[in-house]
Amino acid sequence: MTEVLFSRPKSLRDVPFHYCPGCQHGIIHRLAAEVIDELAVGEMTIGVIPVGCAALAYEYFNFDTVEAAHGRAPAVATGVKRVCPDAVVFTYQGDGDLAAIGTAEIVHAAARGEKITTIFVNNAIYGMTGGQMAPTSLVDQVTTTSPYGRKSESAGLPIRVTEMLSVLEGTKFIARVAVNNPVNMTKAKAAIKKAFEIQLSGKGFSLVEVLSTCPTNWGLTALEAVAWLESNLIPYYPLGIIKTVEGAVK
Amino acid sequence: MAEKVLMKGNEAIGEAAVVAGCRHYFGYPITPQSELIEYMARRLPQVDGVFLQAESEVAAINMVYGAAGAGARVMTSSSSPGISLKQEGISYLAGAELPCVIVNIMRGGPGLGGIQPGQGDYFQATKGGGHGDYHNIVLTPDSVQELVDMTILGFDLADKYRNPVMLLGDGAMGQMMEPVIFKPSIAQPAVKPWAVSGLRGGREPNIINSLHIKPDELELHNLHLQRKYALIRENEVRYEKVHTDDAELIVVAYGITARIVKSAMEKARLQGLKVGMLRPITAWPFPVEPFGELALKTKAFLAVELSAGQMVEDVRLAVNGLKPVYFYGRMGGMIPSPKEILEQIVQIMQGKEGN
């Protein structure tokens, strides 16, 4: 008697990811797909896909998807959800998409308590366009548009968007996770599941920020990138559940 | 609503949308179309519809993109500066072939411009407006009744061709009151098997998308769009001809300007001047065909617009050098009087030429 212990989630198609070696988008896609399978909502899920490295995610997810313009995913998701209130609608957005060009859309979708979920992938850099400075790039981080390192005097300090959104009344579940090791992956999946459950319960807006690597544009190997994330990103962007339906987590 | 009711243009558009089955509206306040967004805020909840005041025009058009993608009849409205903000989303709607109705109650520009009527967004509306090779279907009504009829027709055309439709009005049209009758469309409601609403056990995943990363695939998509635009040009040209049979001068105007031109034309006729009018009801597709025939019979054309001369370029292309094309325009929210247009007509017809 054989038992299947591990297989491709139904919510992912049998298509190879285009992501660079060591990039964690693939893991995050898989976690989202596993959660959708476990909640048995794949038949009623609509994913809103961003502009950025995940722009082709519609080729990987095995449910209805909409490709949004850069930063506009929360507005597009709002339109979809208002037409299909019983559907599960989520946006999948990077840091350039959500924290720079799309700040108005994410803030107001959250403020309205739009019954959607956002998976916010923060790797502190613009990946698709070739490694430019992001609003979440760290001080002194070298990128192609901060070749001498990000200087706070001219480029400001990195934004902790997730904490910022957590003070809005419309947000009912906000967490920051990482997928740098199996323990954190388990926690990340639990947070994503909780975020979808909040949407299903109709309570309001939910968001999970996932810290992620970009070995290609950080100029590091896959393993070095994980180490850099642990020693640089996590200290500035602390992991944990920031807000639940009961309010801020102290 | 079969009996005649007296309504303001902006509000009549809103009721026409409801009659057309539109139950989703996303917008942002701007003068001079605020009565429309306010009407939708009042009216849609009465019919279990969704009204949402967005944080910006950019967000509103992207909500339209989402709602249209999910298969709803959806509308947004704005005025010139707000329509500029929507251009990104309109390009995506055209690229992803999503049906929707976008209302532009034009005011004077450029920039913040003014809040009085204008027709300076003709280029933007008919030539694309956003990036890439695409066209909106552009309807240019000249009465409150036509605002109603064109709104209802606009939803049908949007669904029929999976294409954004722009209803191009102006501040005067939006504000003026006239009696109207609401006649529902007789067209069959569109089936939208391409829409995203969850698989619900029935089909393969749908993708609403304007991204085609491979050049050959993007070219094929563009060729498909161009074939669709050719079909629209073939089937959907609408215009009105008045007194053109014996006309020695044909005045070309649309929207509120056509109403003033009609008065000027009647005054000219009383003076024995053989003046006719050609009024485009679709600005895109532009009624090219009637100009070929009229250019053989008439002596000259005069385009009148609330702009520095935008539609006149389409008139010149359509006349193709066969006869002189004159232009008269006012800008900034200034509206020509019938007398002022009559003076232009007289000057041209007496060989003194117009401006």
Rg result of chain A: 17 Å
What is the level-2 CATH architecture name of the largest domain in chain B?
A: 3-Layer(aba) Sandwich
Give the integer mean of the pLDDT values of chain A: 97
Q: Any idea what the shape of chain A is?
A: globular
Order of helices and strands of chain A: HEEHEHHEHHEHEHHEE
- CATH homologous superfamily designation of the largest domain in chain B: Thiamin diphosphate (ThDP)-binding fold, Pyr/PP domains
Helix share bin of chain B: 40-55%
Largest sheet of chain B: 7 strands, mixed
Question: What does the oligomeric state look like here?
Answer: heterodimer
Indicate the mean pLDDT of chain B: 97
Euclidean distance between termini CA atoms of chain B: 46 Å
Write the layout of secondary structure elements.
The complex is a heterodimer of chains A (250) and B (355).
Chain A: H1 25-38, E1 45-49, E2 64-67, H2 73-83, E3 88-94, H3 95-101, H4 103-111, E4 117-122, H5 152-155, H6 161-166, E5 171-178, H7 182-200, E6 205-211, H8 215-218, H9 222-236, E7 240-244, E8 247-248
Parallel strand pairs in A: 1-2, 1-3, 3-4, 4-6, 5-6
Antiparallel strand pairs in A: 5-7, 7-8
Chain B: E1 5-8, H1 9-19, E2 24-27, H2 34-43, E3 50-53, H3 57-69, E4 74-78, H4 80-95, E5 100-106, H5 122-126, E6 137-139, H6 144-161, E7 164-170, H7 171-175, E8 177-180, E9 207-208, H8 215-235, E10 239-242, E11 249-252, H9 255-270, E12 275-280, E13 282-284, H10 289-297, E14 300-305, H11 311-319, E15 325-329, H12 338-349
Parallel strand pairs in B: 2-3, 2-4, 4-5, 5-7, 6-7, 11-12, 11-14, 14-15
Antiparallel strand pairs in B: 1-8, 6-13, 10-12
Helix pairs in contact in B: 1-2, 1-6, 3-4, 9-12
